[in-house]
Amino acid sequence: MEPISLDVRARELLDRAAAASSGRAADTVHGGHEHGGHEHGGHGQALRQTLLALTAGTGLAEHESPGEATLLVLRGHVRLSSGDASWEGRAGDLLAVPGARHALDAVEDSAVLLTVVRRP
């Protein structure tokens, strides 16, 4: 497998997110056959890494946890929330995604690497 420049991909995805009405763009960079999200089903590897780009003020509405997961903030500033708790992440921060329902919001234009080990 050729090395992947997450910096280059993040820039490209932020451009796509800026052009999208949703303000979001995603690309699965490792594992799985589904693209960009928490979909279940299909065949593939248990480990999946998805690059997500979000423009300031956009996010992912509250949703169930797909399995054990982390978010590595590559650019920008995001807020991960679950119930009454929330965690801020900036470039270089690694956030553990809670097992409960959670949401992700971009405080500023941001790119994150979501790593998920899907439940069997």
TrEMBL record:
Give the CDD domains listed for this entry.
cupin_HP0902-like
Q: Where is the region Disordered?
A: 19-48
Recorded coiled-coil stretches: none
Highest rank taxon of the organism = Bacteria
The record's listing under InterPro entries reads: RmlC-like_jellyroll, RmlC_Cupin_sf
Biased composition, Basic and acidic residues: where in the chain?
A: 30-42
Its recorded name reads: LuxR family transcriptional regulator
**From which organism does this entry originate?**
Microbispora triticiradicis
Q: Highest lineage ranks of the organism?
A: Bacteria, Bacillati, Actinomycetota, Actinomycetes, Streptosporangiales
